[in-house]
Design a protein that fits this description.
The protein has about 450 residues and is an all-alpha fold. The chain has one domain. Helix content is about 85%, strand content about 0%. The protein contains 17 helices and no strands. Helix 1 packs parallel to helix 7 and helix 6 runs parallel beside helix 8. It is globular.
Length: about 450
């Protein structure tokens, strides 16, 4: 039976962007809420427990990098194939994507068993912090099957414009996680008190539930994809190559964040464990601002990719202009909130006086970079949709490794921790300039001739 024209090629652009992005923005806000609530519960154990989870974050983020980056590659190929009416290739992208997801899990099963302990020990000599960090990291790595399949199933729904169902999957996992956190951490409803291990178990249980729901929604509701065991069990080198042309730069781009946080932890440990805890709290809080913009980005990529496949220049330009305005507006609101209420935000994490002393100026300084970051994220969606994710990688490397870490390290030598935070706005200004250069290059090479 012939497939109908997808809404990404027919619906009015502004309505389409809102329809595609709003469910993702809501679900990512809930995901951000989970991250914050999870850390609030952990902070009630102790500041040391919060520090241990912060130290585990870089390796945990590598899982997200591998799963999300692979999902971006699947998303871009599948959406473009639908726009080109190449339905055999879109089905192959979905099937091969599931195979790649299973292989991703095996990588981190091994990492959890072998790498977790030495990784944590490089960041601290405190036996209590190290013990909690190792326990947390081993659980989230060795039981990450749910995480990887959750991300893939959500990307499949997003790539065909069914972001509402993707929202349902992500919301269910986050809500289950939030409910289980206090039960498993503090030993409620007859459960034993598990502390940091309880936080990790709540996380992986929520991910497994979301993966099951995502599978069900794809099978029942995603009519643009025809699943078959043949596509899953028969790797297609050409399809996998197309997926990873987009995925590898995306994986590296997100992985750079892991390297950055790890190196920042090493820089901050020279000041105190509290400084690392403040950095961890900042990461949780900033997710409230960044996650909606990433949701907008996830909704925008398939729209641009589809219309790129359909050679519809006007819809691409209108989509980008509208998304750019929304992204910068959201990030500007985030800057205002961080400037006005830093103490209130930190007190949610049971902040000590020392944490407030370090954290209030940290939040106020770092948030100055938010509006520029919003524009960079919007431009990055174009790079990913046009299979030019290498440009996103260049921007990310420039921001987080070439500029941020060296500048933060040099400023730390002055002995004033407040100067370390200044490295964030400096790095964002540089990344903004690189983003504009790369976008102009893509515009001339791809959009103008279209």
């Amino acid at each position: 039976m012939p497939r109908q024209e997808n809404k990404m090629g027919t619906m009015p652009v502004k309505k389409l962007i809102i329809t595609m992005s709003l469910p993702m923005m809501v679900s990512m806000l809930v995901q951000a809420l989970y991250n914050v609530v999870d850390s609030i519960y952990v902070s009630r154990i102790s500041e040391a427990a919060l520090t241990s989870v912060t130290m585990a974050f870089p390796l945990q983020n590598l899982m997200i990098a591998l799963g999300s980056g692979t999902g971006v590659g699947i998303n871009a190929l599948l959406s473009r194939s639908l726009g080109e009416k190449r339905y055999d290739q879109s089905d192959a992208a979905a099937g091969n994507g599931l195979l790649l997801t299973a292989l991703n899990y095996l990588v981190f099963l091994i990492a959890g068993l072998v790498v977790a302990a030495p990784f944590i020990h490089t960041q601290t000599s405190d036996p209590g912090i190290a013990s909690d960090g190792i326990i947390y990291l081993r659980i989230v790595c060795c039981m990450s099957l749910g995480l990887f399949f959750q991300m893939t199933f959500e990307r499949l729904l997003q790539s065909t414009g069914r972001t509402f169902y993707s929202m349902i999957s992500q919301l269910s996992g986050a809500v289950i996680n939030i409910i289980l956190d206090p039960i498993l951490i503090f030993g409620m409803l007859g459960m034993p008190r598990m502390g940091v291990a309880g936080a990790a178990l709540a996380t992986v249980i929520g991910q497994f539930c979301a993966a099951v729901i995502g599978l069900f929604l794809n099978v029942k509701k995603n009519k643009d994809i025809h699943f078959s065991f043949k596509n899953v069990l028969s790797p297609d080198g050409r399809v996998i190559s197309e997926i990873y042309k987009v995925a590898v730069p995306s994986i590296l781009m997100i992985s750079i964040g892991s390297i950055m946080t790890y190196l920042m932890n090493l820089i901050l440990t020279a000041f105190s464990a509290t400084a690392i805890a403040v950095f961890g709290v900042y990461f949780r809080l900033q997710s409230f601002v960044f996650m909606p913009v990433f949701g907008l980005n996830n909704g925008l990529i398939p729209v641009i990719a589809y219309n790129y496949g359909a050679r519809n220049k006007s819809r691409i330009l209108e989509s980008l202009k509208f998304a750019m305005t929304l992204a910068v507006s959201i990030m500007t609101m985030g800057t205002i909130i961080f400037e006005l209420f830093p103490g209130l935000l930190l007190r949610m994490f049971d902040a000590s006086e020392e944490m407030l002393r370090i954290g209030i100026p940290a939040l106020r300084i770092i948030c100055l970079s938010f509006p520029i970051a919003g524009a960079c994220i919007a431009m990055g969606s174009v790079f990913q949709a046009f299979s030019r994710s290498f440009y996103s990688l260049i921007v990310s490397v420039g921001r987080q490794l070439v500029v941020l870490i060296p500048v933060a390290f040099l400023l730390s030598k002055l002995g004033n921790i407040n100067l370390v935070w200044v490295a964030f706005p400096i790095a964002e200004i540089v990344s903004g300039m690189i983003s504009v250069y790369c976008f102009r290059k893509v515009y001339k090479e791809i959009i103008v001739p279209m």
